[in-house]
Design brief:
Blueprint: H1 3-26, E1 44-48, H2 91-102, H3 104-107, E2 128-132, E3 137-141, E4 147-151, E5 166-172, E6 175-181, E7 201-208, E8 213-221, E9 230-238, H4 256-260
Parallel strand pairs: 4-5
Antiparallel strand pairs: 1-2, 1-9, 2-3, 3-4, 5-6, 6-7, 7-8, 8-9
Length: 267
């Protein structure tokens, strides 16, 4: 092949790739599997692969808050998951958030193995499992054995606040929308001290982006703490390994010494 022919061949290949790449980018994602009722099948074990549990906002890597652990407990940096980049705290709440951050080793409910609440349970560094049928929906979390049943008919106002709140789910097309109320005000959003009041209201949206990826969004409203509603979003990935399962993480026994060791009768 002479030089002129080679140039023409390379030009033709370049043109074909230029035409093909936009078509590939616009190709629809593979459709998720569906249950007999027509809704996407969300059954499986899912996990967020980010650092939102450390801090919902942009954050750099930092040294461990427990010096003797060295790099074992060093905190990983990561991009934020907050739409717009910043949580819209009211002034007094912003000051409280900063106090929380300074004393997070004592104040963060995760340290004491309290149930994580919503939305935090969905992006802790542990998997969770969705159980779904046409008549029932539930979430089981590896962390602390947390669990929540999702009502498929509106149960009315939550009878009392609880760590995991009351969840009411409905479908909007292929998106599962869960309205969460009655959340205990002692839960945090992350290890950075981000918190809420007893007026927290969370609306979650789970939208398939393929057979093994969900886009998760949570809109957070709390007029006592924030100047306006705000939203976080992130992908969740299905575990596809053949032996995927939730393991026990009974963290209560891990914190007994921390919380009650001071009361041990001296020998």
């Amino acid at each position: 092949m002479n030089t002129s022919s080679l140039k023409r061949t390379l030009l033709a290949l370049a043109i074909s790739f230029t035409v093909a790449l936009p078509m590939l980018a616009q190709a629809p994602a593979a459709r998720p599997a569906r249950l007999p009722d027509g809704h996407p099948n969300l059954n499986g074990i899912w996990q967020a692969m980010n650092t939102a549990n450390w801090d919902l906002q942009d954050h750099a890597s930092s040294a461990s808050p427990v010096v003797p652990t060295g790099a074992w407990m060093a905190e990983p940096g990561g991009p934020g998951v907050v739409e717009g980049g910043e949580i819209p705290y009211l002034p007094a709440a912003k000051a409280q958030k900063e106090k929380n951050a300074k004393d997070r080793m004592n104040l963060d409910p995760e340290v004491k193995c309290y149930l994580p609440g919503i939305p935090r349970a969905n992006y802790m560094p542990y998997p969770f499992q969705i159980f779904q049928s046409d008549k029932a929906l539930a979430f089981a979390y590896q962390y602390d054995g947390a669990f929540r049943n999702v009502y498929l008919k509106d149960p009315g106002p939550a009878p009392a606040d609880s760590w995991m709140g009351q969840s009411y789910g409905k479908w909007e097309g292929d998106t599962l929308v869960i309205d969460v109320t009655g959340l205990d005000d002692r839960t945090w959003f992350d290890r950075a001290g981000d918190f809420h009041s007893d007026e927290l209201h969370v609306v979650e949206r789970f939208t398939p982006r393929g057979p093994d990826v969900l886009m998760y969004e949570a809109t957070i409203t709390d007029p006592k703490t924030f100047s306006r509603p705000w939203k976080i979003s992130m992908p969740l990935y299905r575990h596809v390994e053949p032996n995927a399962r939730l393991m026990e993480f009974k963290c209560v026994e891990f914190v007994e010494e921390l919380m009650y060791g001071q009361y041990r009768k001296k020998q």
